[in-house]
Amino acid sequence: MPISAYAAKAPKGRLESFTYDAGPLGPREVEVKVTHCGICHSDQAMIDNDWQFSAYPLVPGHEVVGTVAALGADVRGLALGQRVGIGWQCGSCGECEFCRVGHETYCAKERDTIVHHHGGFADRVRADANFAIPLPDGLDSAQAAPLLCAGTTVFTPMLHHGVTANTRAAVVGIGGLGHLAVQFLAQMGCEVTAISSTHDKDDEARGFGATHFIATKGTDELKKAASRFDFILNTVPADLPWGDYLAALRPAGKLVTVGVPASDVKLSAFQLIGQEKSFCGGRTGSPAEIATMFNFAARRGVHAQIEKFPMKDINAAMDRVRTGKMRYRVVLEA
Amino acid sequence: MPISAYAAKAPKGRLESFTYDAGPLGPREVEVKVTHCGICHSDQAMIDNDWQFSAYPLVPGHEVVGTVAALGADVRGLALGQRVGIGWQCGSCGECEFCRVGHETYCAKERDTIVHHHGGFADRVRADANFAIPLPDGLDSAQAAPLLCAGTTVFTPMLHHGVTANTRAAVVGIGGLGHLAVQFLAQMGCEVTAISSTHDKDDEARGFGATHFIATKGTDELKKAASRFDFILNTVPADLPWGDYLAALRPAGKLVTVGVPASDVKLSAFQLIGQEKSFCGGRTGSPAEIATMFNFAARRGVHAQIEKFPMKDINAAMDRVRTGKMRYRVVLEA
What we know:
The structure is a homodimer. The first copy, chain A, is an alpha/beta fold. Helices cover about 25% and strands about 30% of the residues of chain A. In chain A, the strands form four sheets. In chain A, strands 3, 4, 5, 8, 9, 17 and 18 form a seven-stranded mixed beta sheet that branches. In chain A, helix 7 (about 240-245) links the parallel strand 13 and strand 14. In chain A, helix 3 packs across helix 4. The first copy, chain A, is globular and about 60 Å long. Chains A and B meet through strand 14, strand 15, helix 8 and strand 16 of A and strand 14, strand 15, helix 8 and strand 16 of B.
């Protein structure tokens, strides 16, 4: 049966009905019936061809939650009807040195859900079975959707950089990613500082678990926070005053960006060397790491704050994302 | 008794005889009779006021090896006549959260041997007893001198970034620092690639333990080394093609610079994010880390390759350093 989807047919295009035949299901693939799909800024970036590797017609959607509708012949460990999530990555070679040790995000043959593949703004979507990650009971499907990209993007750097309860942490940008990052860190037992341009989100950030709040626009609050953090996670896709953020790190501190700034990042080597600081890139996790995040979120009550739209109102939902005013994430419901 | 030294009396000055009274010995200080002192590029930078914090008259010399000549009243654990080394740092507060756990390099009250303090181009030099680090038997005094700055600068990042025998490592710049870095890594059991502008030092680098050699000038050897290294240590104080070096890192790889480039470092955030790479600053170690390095060097036979000059020929020795042609480190002998 053909898959019924919404596609952009050209860069920056509106989303239109689009039907495609996904072909025979591969032996290690699953087909998932979409019940929910989050909208991510990278869906917008892909629609707009910001990164110059979009292919059209382009079906966005890589924060998919649904139920297993069909199983490839060789798939084990998943059952028809089971709730699963699919994120940015939908496949890998399964055989390389990275896949073999559960580092599928490093696979040179990584396949991504909306890159030369049709995503979750649809009634169904395909993925390698390994990338259809079971949802634990107690995790609401709509709230789980944003975890598949926003959530794992902020959670994985915490794993990879050894964040513990005594890490002094800051989150730059209190949006779709940041409001989850603050919750994850607070639930890990950290003292968390939320950093935003203004104090508009001060109360909400404290509600997510932040102990401190820094507003950067027209204040000296960031400069006053010199040598305060072991771990700063930047979620903002903008050119920041990197020197001020490096100064806000404690010795051996790490500034991890998951937001892609418009320009190259300029850093003072002297500033990095003096106290052995690091500037790092962070990204989404492997299936095992996403499963770890799901369990943590369910266990500790980390909830995405979402605005729901019916899937048929996809263009209104996209417009809402483009305004940047949603608090904090938009989720489509089938 | 006044200390007899060689000092630069103004920026870029020749070194001249200079005698000073170091005052009463503090209760936790030691006075060390200098037998050897290495010359480091940062001595030259300090003489020339490159970093804008030099004070004159300036007595350089922060790769000091000698014997304990006088002990402050409260010093324990050192004996008169004992061989010790003094490096870049000569003191710290001893009480802060960093000093208490052996991270004296992070102390906000760090005191440095040639910054507002007179160094080892002299017959004697003072330091906090904690920063006069005993030399193990079997470590030659002249060869130990360069370990006090060049050695610890490259060894400490290996400790702090968890280098193990299976780390795929590269060293950029085969000079005073680099020739020690190659030896340390090879003796740790790593596969080591030496990277230099030309193949001039190919044979020597292999003699130090390198398995591979990359020449960067007018070749595509670096570009061909894409995704090859877990750990790249840059010892060159110059603006490098950072993008090519980031590309040479494997997933989650780290590019650590201990060389201070002339300009800010420009990095592509996309390149860092895609495979979670890091750009880090590295520096000299704490007294405990220097002691660890001494023991490793003695145990595994890591030898600085040096050119010796009598201390009285200090200006000829400095001229030799300024040419950059010494292989690989200049050491003054009393």
